[in-house]
Amino acid sequence: MADDDLVLEMRGIRKEFPGVVANDDVSFEVRRGEVHALLGENGAGKSTLMNILYGLYRPDGGEIRLNGKAVSFSSAREAIQAGIGMVHQHFMLIPVMTVAENVVLGTEPRNGVLLDEAQAARRVAEMAKTFKFAVDPEALVQDISVGQQQRVEIMKALYRNADVLILDEPTAVLTPQEASDLFEILQTLQREGLSIIFISHKLNEVLEIADRITVLRRGKTIETVPRAGATEASLARAMVGRDVLLRVDKPVAQVGDVLLEVEDLHVSDDRGLEKVRGVSFDVRAGEIVGIAGVDGNGQTELIDALTGLQKIDSGKVVIGGTQLSHATAKAALDAGIGHIPEDRQRRGLVLEFSIAENIALHDYAKPPTARSGWLFPGRMVQRAKTLISEFDVRGGGPLTRAGGLSGGNQQKLVAAREIDRDPKVLIAAQPTRGLDVGAIEYLHRRLVTERDEGRAILLVSLELEEILSLSDRILVLYEGKIVGEHTGEISEEAIGLEMLGGKETAAA
Amino acid sequence: MTDPGPSPSPEEAAQTGTLATRLALKQRAGGIVVPIVTVIFALVMSWIIVAATQHSAHTALVVFKEIFDGSGLNWVFHPSTNTFTSISAYNLSQTLLQTTPLILTGLAVAFAFRCGMFNIGANGQYLVGLMVANWLGVDLAGLNPFLHILLCIVAGTLAAAAFAGIAGVLKATVGAHEVITTIMLNWIAYWTASWLVGVGGPLQNASDPTAPISNQVSPGARLPDFWGKQGFSGLHIGIFLSLAAVVVFWVLLNRTTLGYEVRAVGFNPDAAAYGGINVKKNLIRAMAISGAFAGLAGTLDMLGGAQNYQIGQLDIPFIQVGFIGIAVALLGRTTAVGTLIGALFFGGLLYGSFHGLGSSSVIDPTLASNLTYIVQGLVVLFIGADVLILYVWNSRKRLRRKPPGTAAKGAEAAA
After folding, report:
1. Helix or strand or coil: residue A103?
2. Please, what's the b/e burial string for B387-403 (b: 16 or more CB within 10 A of its CB; e: otherwise)?
3. Which of residues 344-363 of A touch B (CB under 8 A)?
4. Which of A123, A248, A285, B138 gives B215 a disulfide partner, CB atoms 3.0 to 4.6 angstroms apart?
């Protein structure tokens, strides 16, 4: 492919927001028919750059050339007309309308003043077939899976004759299977001559799908490299600006007493469906036990039952010798459970509270934070100060609203609170979801440190790689049952097969 | 006027200057700006209405001066403490009399708000306080005055707390929405009170069996007036209890574990439950505390001079303090000091427009009394639209970066 076959050139793009330079002389180009990944940590300026391209922001400087011609968009509408399509992280679909109606929305084929539904459905069906989308045009958007909804978004862009397709962190909302389906679709689109810009901060998927990779760091272009020759380590170094330990370097586990014991646990979800169906396992001091599984196989209910947030149907939970089978959340906390919840914004933090108040979330009623009902905010702040520096939480002081912190710092805040309570058992659910490489590295190292301090750590994650690199022992959860238990070296494929129910073994 | 609890001080914010602190600063600014702009908008709209109906822009301006003078707030320009020789002193004492219950019903609504609930039942809770105070104030005649007053206040407040607690229990146990249940409880209180003082009712007066009106509270249970003359609707000491309630409200929310729980549940019940807080217990407790504030308003009005120590069946439909409390709390952004200022604003508006305008010949008296309701309605409307007001306020900045919704997100991504 020659350099003169450029579809898109962005040269010297600059964009400032009050107090920050989001894009500083960023240059970026896309060839016809390539998948070009835009890689960078959260806040590196990827989204800003793409919003400029899509007409949502006006650049303060620089030039955009589309098919050799200088362009300047003042709205998304103009960008769409010029052949640029964008699929946002959060879909912009109308749930009560059909797939076909959503796709044609705004550019409907008309029959007089009425929507020509038949024609719309036919054209969408044709498109779905051409690109192998496997989406029923007549289905209501609210009834189809997230992966299919994303395809509807892609179809919307294609329907408007997009030539350059921007995907903003498309795999963030997908299961591994849906992600690999998406990659197949992208390859089909590529063969049809579309150019794709793939925004991501995940190294492995970038290396899997992209032809070329441009790395941004702190608003600047660091490098553009072809996939051939790029490695996870080299990309991570470019992203973070220093060497990053991708594989967790951990000593052999020094296993102690059993601290968490689960026996024949049955748990139902809020709708009364049994989601955990007879799970038994234990976690010892000084080991990390990882629970692998595809989302929705009972992980959430299992964690909620262990932490007292969900009533159990039957079974036994023992923490450090204390029977906790039907305990409240407070009793579980007092018995020595620490819990990094899977959704830090919904559950882990009160976003409107200050950092200091969030740190007190479990122990607000205990000395020294409070005495017989009276609160001492000064002591709360004091404790927050210590933890902020110990856990390197950046972006504010003890009185800063937690909601104003970045995702990584919010997670550090949650981890700081949970670890500082000196729990016997630490349950970490999706501890690195949505975080960038630097924060992931920090949290992983911290979990290993806490393991070596003699805590029992239960790691629940949908990222198989995370499970594999951190766990001393791996349990595979499938449809509410443990279908596999592994120690030592095991291949990703073998576990992946078990996660999909490929092998039923009576483990544990 | 926001809580001086843990939230960033401007000095600290200026030092660090991160996105988080800038956002917090902006919110703080919005916290004062929005209510002020709301009031200005509402007054401008009222001015337009008066100007249109009176065909005179000047008359419309005079109206606001009449309201201001009528409220007695012009007293600060020529202070005199004699309510018989100084009209402004008298008017001010009457405005403060109106303000006394409004502070409390405002606090009632604000407290429930802090726990994530909308208490529309302050009016019913106020009535419960009123009735219990009348009952004990009449029946226990002859008791030591201090004990008598204390007993009436405590019993009225607790009864209203229990009454409001019903809505909390229903929400916590079967999930019934508190807006629905408190409205229904309002009607229960309304008709029960009407029956109690109605013909043949248990609290009806002994001297005239045809009059649907209660007995007068025994002199020993009356709150002493400290400004103006006893028995001539002077300002009674209830206002100090109202002011104390403002302090209690602030301390409760910001300096006790109870308040921590209330705020946590109000902001994010999921996170509160995860933190080990019993969410259901808090819903019930917060509703009861909310009701206690409103009930206290009722007892003070009964034992103080505002209702002339008795209540008639025909007075009940005109009791609005609970509903005005909603406007007071919203205008005060559910903070302690804000509610106090909101109550003073509405107290002045109520007394000033009824008595200031009513006794002046500037405009039609019918319009004068309705103007209060118009301004009140507009204030509530504009508070509901405070997002809109903030939007207009920031429009200059927003015009430069389009579209508005994505601007903040972009800045965050870039930070």
Report:
1. helix
2. eebbeebeeeebeebbe
3. 346-354, 356-357, 360-362
4. B138
